[in-house]
């Protein structure tokens, strides 16, 4: 019987704790507690502020400690927060931490706003930050203004700062205390932002003095001569340009080849560069087949330009006309001027990336396409093949009177005759009077990122956000400007290259943009797609101030990040509105 009673008591106690826990988990209770904390912080702010002006008059009443006198209605306390507010202000400011006690109000207000769900913050980070600032400023004011403790009612560092500073002075001396305060302040700034390290490196390298000296040198130059930005930085020496009359143009002989009459029913394989002619037989007739192989552009070194002569022009200016002070546009790259762009050799090189042509395969596919169409009563006049890295495009010109829909309906039959995994018929090709048949190559070549990023087209691109996605069937780099794409959806079945496409987009931007010009917000629910980019967190990744990881893996935190991006977008729209511009 006693055992049953003890079990019942245990269940009742557990249910009681469960009810109490449920009460404190209630959002309404959280809101009420948060509201009380916010109001209490405002009350303390009023008491602290009034203490600076009425503390001297209220000091005798508060120090007397007479509870009856303080509880009476005519106690003579002049503090706007009353006798209790005056007591709290005197205790926290004079007896505890000095004027740094204002950080207690900040933490109470932030905690209240979090409970009210007005702001989404990490409370423990605010607690650590406010606690460190509370102690540091208390010691600082107690050490720096120790002489004012004798003649003032207000102790700027409180008794805590006074006692700690006196102990530190006795241990390490006055210079040692200043060093301790400086080191702890720097450590706290590094805790707040990693950019503090960059700023300190720039400070110790005296880069600001070099920049000032450079600006003075630029101001000392005459306005009649100017050079390009590379000359101003001392990276090129000015080269005088000879007179135009001294330059003789070399006339090259012009050879006009004789026109070659093309045979009827000519079948051409166009692969884009070096031509090779080989006879082929179609239904008893010998036709010439021209093959043009694509010649890839040499990959120049990334972000390196050959030395160019400097073009100097002397121009007279009207001294009477006042043009006003010249203002150069703000260059965000100066915030991280020592940043170096990644080089192309960081990417993997593939030896089999050069385009090669299997003539046996091309001739076999050509004959199969012609015979398949002929078996359905479709004759063609010409056929042209363009061999790409992974796909070959056959452009056919049907005879007069052949309906395009008839050829489009033979897609499965052509795929069956070619033994291909799948083909695509483009009927007709836009801008041309031909029909295209795309056939996968039996031995596809790898389109490497090194060949795309190192191409001349990508390096000399003037896009705001250039993205290189691959190569076209003519072996040209395919690029788009992300600024022209307000929305982009990457979709496809498993193994179709979605991850490769996303990484190509990110890699293109990393190779072309400066950290001061671009930031990424990466969301990776799978936790393995974008984890490799965590090493560039301090340069290219953006996150919330209280966020733990720069790459978001918890989908519940995405809403907060998107809301912060919307706030930033509204701020930029306000700036555009104030500047009376659209973009």
Automatic annotation (TrEMBL):
GO MF terms held by the record: ATP binding; DNA binding
One cellular component (GO) term of this entry: plasma membrane
Residues in FtsK domain copies: 474-583
Residue sites binding ATP per the record: 492-499
Location(s) in or outside the cell: Cell membrane
UniProt cross-references to InterPro entries, sorted A to Z: FtsK/SpoIIIE/SftA, FtsK_4TM, FtsK_alpha, FtsK_dom, P-loop_NTPase
Transmembrane feature ranges: 29-53, 88-111, 123-146, 166-192
GO biological process: cell division; chromosome segregation
Sequence segments annotated as region (Disordered): 217-237
Gene3D superfamilies recorded: 3.30.980.40, P-loop containing nucleotide triphosphate hydrolases
Signal peptide: none
Domain of life: Bacteria
Pfam (any one): FtsK_4TM
Entry keyword set: ATP-binding, Cell cycle, Cell division, Cell membrane, Chromosome partition, DNA-binding, Membrane, Nucleotide-binding, Transmembrane, Transmembrane helix
Keyword check for Signal: no
Family that this chain belongs to: Belongs to the FtsK/SpoIIIE/SftA family.
Protein name: FtsK/SpoIIIE family protein
């Amino acid at each position: 019987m006693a055992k049953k009673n003890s079990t019942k008591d245990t269940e009742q106690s557990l249910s009681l704790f469960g009810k109490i826990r449920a009460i404190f988990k209630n959002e309404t209770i959280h809101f009420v507690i948060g509201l009380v904390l916010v109001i209490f912080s405002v009350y303390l702010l009023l008491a602290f502020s009034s203490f600076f002006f009425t503390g001297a008059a209220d000091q005798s009443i508060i120090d007397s400690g007479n509870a009856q006198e303080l509880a009476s209605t005519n106690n003579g306390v002049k503090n706007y927060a009353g006798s209790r507010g005056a007591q709290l202000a005197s205790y926290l400011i004079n007896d505890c931490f000095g004027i740094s006690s204002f950080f207690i109000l900040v933490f109470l207000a932030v905690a209240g706003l979090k409970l009210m769900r007005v702001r989404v913050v990490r409370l423990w980070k605010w607690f650590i930050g406010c606690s460190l600032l509370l102690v540091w400023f208390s010691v600082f004011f107690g050490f720096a203004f120790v002489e004012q403790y004798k003649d003032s009612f207000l102790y700027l560092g409180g008794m805590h700062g006074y006692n700690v500073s006196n102990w530190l002075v006795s241990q390490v001396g006055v210079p040692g205390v200043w060093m301790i305060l400086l080191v702890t302040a720097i450590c706290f700034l590094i805790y707040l932002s990693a950019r503090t390290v960059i700023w300190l490196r720039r400070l110790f390298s005296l880069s600001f003095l070099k920049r000032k000296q450079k600006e003075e040198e630029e101001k000392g130059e005459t306005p009649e001569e100017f050079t390009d930005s590379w000359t101003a930085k001392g990276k090129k020496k000015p080269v005088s340009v000879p007179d135009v009359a001294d330059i003789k143009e070399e006339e090259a002989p012009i050879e006009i080849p004789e026109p070659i009459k093309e045979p009827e029913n000519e079948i051409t394989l166009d692969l884009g560069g070096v031509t090779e002619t080989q006879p082929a037989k179609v239904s008893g007739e010998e036709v010439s087949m021209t093959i043009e192989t694509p010649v890839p552009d040499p990959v120049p070194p990334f972000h390196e330009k050959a030395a160019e002569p400097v073009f100097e022009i002397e121009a007279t200016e009207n001294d009477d006309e006042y043009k006003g002070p010249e203002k150069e546009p703000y260059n965000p790259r100066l915030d991280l001027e020592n940043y170096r762009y990644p080089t192309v050799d960081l990417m993997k090189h593939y030896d089999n990336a050069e385009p090669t042509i299997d003539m046996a395969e091309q001739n076999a596919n050509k004959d199969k396409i012609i015979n398949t169409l002929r078996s359905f009563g479709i004759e063609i006049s010409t056929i042209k093949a363009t061999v790409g890295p992974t796909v070959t495009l056959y452009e056919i010109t049907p005879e007069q009177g052949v309906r395009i829909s008839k050829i489009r309906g033979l897609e499965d039959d052509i795929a069956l005759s070619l033994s291909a995994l799948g083909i695509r018929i483009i009927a007709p090709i836009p801008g041309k009077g031909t029909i295209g048949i795309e056939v996968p190559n039996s031995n596809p070549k790898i389109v490497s990122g090194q060949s795309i990023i190192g191409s001349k087209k990508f390096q000399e691109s003037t896009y705001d956000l250039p993205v290189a996605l691959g190569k076209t069937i003519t072996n040209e780099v395919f690029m788009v400007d992300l600024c022209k794409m307000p929305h982009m959806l990457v979709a496809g079945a498993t193994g179709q290259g979605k991850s490769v496409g996303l990484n190509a987009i990110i890699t293109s931007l990393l190779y072309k943009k400066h950290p001061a010009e671009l930031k990424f917000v990466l969301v990776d629910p799978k936790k393995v797609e974008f984890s490799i980019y965590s090493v560039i967190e301090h340069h290219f990744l953006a996150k919330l101030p209280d966020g733990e990881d720069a790459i978001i893996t918890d989908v519940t935190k995405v809403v907060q990040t998107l809301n912060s991006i919307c706030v930033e977008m509204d701020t930029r729209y306000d700036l555009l509105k104030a500047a009376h511009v659209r973009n």
